[in-house]
Amino acid sequence: MFGLKTEASFDGAHFLADYYGKCENLHGHRWRVVAYARQESLQTEGTMRDMVLDFGVFKKALRSIVGEFDHMFLVEEGTLKQATVDALEGEGFTLKMLPFRTTAENLARYFYGRLEQEGIPVAQVDVYETPLNCASYFGE
Ligand SMILES: Nc1nc2c(c(=O)[nH]1)N=C([C@H](O)[C@H](O)COP(=O)(O)OP(=O)(O)OP(=O)(O)O)CN2
Ligand SMILES: [Zn+2]
C-alpha cells in the first residue's frame, strides 16, 4: 500500500448554531486541511509512472476546493434569518451557505467527498480548527 499526503488551509468565519458556549458567537479560524491518498499499486505508464498520482495534481485539487472557502463566512443553511443574510450581502460580504453544521467533522467529510469526485484515491481528510484540535473523516 502506498500513500500521499498534502495540505491546504483557509481563513474564515463561522458560528455554531445550537452550541452552548463561546462557539455560538461569530468567530474565525485558520482551518488547516490535510488530505491523504492511498493506493495498493503504483501507476504503470505515462507521466505518473511509479506514482500514486502526481503531487501537483493532488495539491492543486485540494487547494482548488479549499480555496472556495477562503475568506468566507461559512453559514449553515437555515441558521440565519433571511433578512440578516440579505443585510450582510447588501454590505458586500460573501457568505458561503452550507447544508451542514460547520463542524470540523462535517468539513472533513465534505472535502473528502469533493476529492473523491475529482478522482483522487482519498483515504482520509483531517481538518484542524486550531493547531491542537483536529477531526478526521475516513470514508465509508
Ligand atoms: N468535535 C468538535 N468540537 C468542536 C468543534 C468542532 O468542529 N468539532 N468546534 C468548535 C468551535 O468551532 C470552536 O471555535 C472551537 O473552540 P475551542 O476548541 O474552544 O477552541 P479555542 O482555540 O478557542 O480554545 P481555547 O482553548 O479557548 O483557546 C467547538 N467544539
Ligand atoms: Zn469555531
Automatic annotation (TrEMBL):
Listed pathway(s): Purine metabolism; 7-cyano-7-deazaguanine biosynthesis
SUPFAM superfamilies: Tetrahydrobiopterin biosynthesis enzymes-like
Classification via Pfam families: PTPS
EC annotation from Swiss-Prot or TrEMBL: 4.1.2.50
Enzyme class, broadest EC rank: lyase
Reactions catalysed, as given in the entry: 7,8-dihydroneopterin 3'-triphosphate + H2O = 6-carboxy-5,6,7,8-tetrahydropterin + triphosphate + acetaldehyde + 2 H(+)
Family membership: Belongs to the PTPS family. QueD subfamily.
Protein name: 6-carboxy-5,6,7,8-tetrahydropterin synthase
